[in-house]
Design a protein that fits this description.
Rossmann fold, DNA-binding, alpha/beta, homodimer, six-stranded parallel sheet
DNA sequence: TTGTAGGCGTTATCAC
DNA sequence: GTGATAACGCCTACAA
């Protein structure tokens, strides 16, 4: 009874006496024998494992993105290893370094600068999401915010809004939301004054305090674009506590297209990102990188999901 | 220049000329050399990887549970490999089989019976969550629904509710929610008639249609316990479309303690499960199993999270 | 149908 | 400080 015969039985090859095989399998079961994944991988290195690193598994933005990554990976029979730093961004390099030893490629939605990433992973194929490329070797899946923001501005203007504000989150990797909003409104002859944009942290609490501040700094706003849906959720709270009705006294637009927006009252109009597709594209980028190719950056577009938090301003609008 | 010297340089051992090391690292970088994780694992098999299998990454129940698993795994320097069947429960055995070849132990929140699981994984250490043990070798993290349901019943009775109904989901692995509700109400002299319990599928749509059916079958209910928060969300929709106010016309209690309940209007009273702790306990169970021990089943308890969807019934209650 | 030989990439041991 | 050798557990190729 050699290694080889055992191998044949375990792997269900032909060329083996059924009786021998039966006996081997029986013994194997008794011994709770399991083939070593390491030895297997060593000999058949066609097993691809990719790592997915995100900020915070509890952030409702990510589940859909993860689903996209996993389904695309599954189509390729890849394995996905997920990790997070749970909002502790300082740990990103350390996590990347450790993950780099366990996977064939990495996909990340990160805060760390590309230079820092590159240093941590030392040449491992890497795909960064949600921001433009900085490092030439990296794959990219970026979000083109322009169509969505443009649609939102058009939508608000069509409804008669003249004073639009924004709650921005400058710590996020994406500086474009604000910029595109400014351009789009300016192009329509309705430039947004500086005081109509406030900055806050990216959270519900941030949204709450920011809207209060915004309405004080720029009285008369009839519509506000929030940096994302979670921030918009905070804005709802403040609007309610100030006795403002949505959308009559204040129209609100979110960003991300999270399903939580649907259960708000009224449901939140939001600029939608196809998060699942982002995940799928990231896997495709990783595949190119693994094949030694240099894929052009991928982009997902954005569009406006009109729900009920926008509408024409009522006569005597807020202050 | 031998393997060995290279190994010393890469792993930063002592006993090497700094200059030699520098040269090696330089060349390694140029060649984009990366050590094989398989060969490493083969020689130093102290790398533990566990697999986590869940239904559906988009189900808001899971992120917290995942966070618990990951943080507990991280404490032990374990790696977590996540996989889902995205609600296609028939694929569970296949997925388990494939995962079994890549990890040292598995944790799952599954529909498949334990016998089916056991067959798929052939002796791999396994922890099942959210239901009582069926297979003697498995680790278990179960939920004790009794305290939470009891507290909910006490709470409703104290508020003067006399007619309580339930929306149940029999496809779920947990048959106890209904049973405990029946026992708890009966013990207080308020048995629930059969028509005051309807069954539906575990989803928002299920909750919507079920509440409509329930109110027809058992007119006069003033409070309803939903199988979980997502089902309760559906019930909110139906209540609103019927013109019923919550909690005045109808009190609603959910199950799970999801944060989405907080943003409902009114915020949803719910029986809370410590999902993060479930994840942590599951990892602890896996650790015991890996050490060859046979841990006693772990249990998380439940409690009532009182928010605003419960209150005293108004005078002329619903029908 | 079964067994033998060799090598996958890494680390540990021990001799140089 | 460095290099040769063996071993980890598996698979492929070929010989018996």
């Amino acid at each position: 009874m050699s290694h080889q015969t055992v191998s044949r039985a375990i792997n269900d090859k032909g060329e083996i006496d059924p009786e021998t095989r039966r006996r081997i399998l029986e013994v194997a079961q008794q011994l709770r024998y399991r083939p070593s994944r390491f030895a297997r991988g060593l000999v058949r290195p066609d097993t691809t494992t990719i790592g997915l690193v995100i900020d915070d598994i509890l952030n409702p933005f990510f589940p859909e993105l993860i689903a996209g990554v996993m389904s695309a990976a599954e189509q390729r029979s890849w394995t996905v290893l997920i990790s997070t730093v749970q909002n502790d961004h300082g740990r990103e390099p350390e996590l990347l370094r450790s993950l780099a030893g366990q996977v064939d490629a990495l996909i990340g939605y990160l805060y760390e600068r590309d230079a820092g990433i590159a240093e941590a992973i030392e040449g491992l194929p890497m795909v960064v999401m949600g921001r433009p490329a900085q490092h030439p070797a990296f794959g990219v899946v970026d979000v083109d915010v322009r169509p969505g923001v443009q649609a939102a501005v058009d939508h608000l203007l069509a409804q008669g809004h003249q004073r639009i504000g924004m709650i921005d989150c400058p710590t996020a990797c994406d500086p474009l939301r604000r910029q595109v909003l400014l351009e789009a409104t300016a192009a329509q002859g309705l430039p947004i004054p500086a005081e109509a944009i406030v900055e806050t942290e990216q959270s519900q609490a941030g949204g709450e305090e920011a809207l209060a501040r915004l309405l004080k700094a720029a009285p008369g706003l009839t519509a506000v674009l929030a940096f994302n849906d979670v921030v918009a959720l905070g804005a709802y709270r403040t609007a309610r506590s100030l006795g403002l009705t949505i959308p009559g006294d204040l129209a609100l637009v979110g960003f991300d297209g999270l399903s939580l927006g649907e259960i708000l009252d009224p449901p939140l109009t939001t600029i939608n990102i196809d998060k699942r597709r982002m995940g799928e594209l990231a896997v495709a980028q990783a595949e190119c990188l693994l094949n030694g190719e240099h894929p052009p950056p991928a982009t997902v577009t954005t569009d406006l999901l009109v729900r009920a938090s926008t509408g024409s301003p009522s006569a005597g609008a807020s202050g």
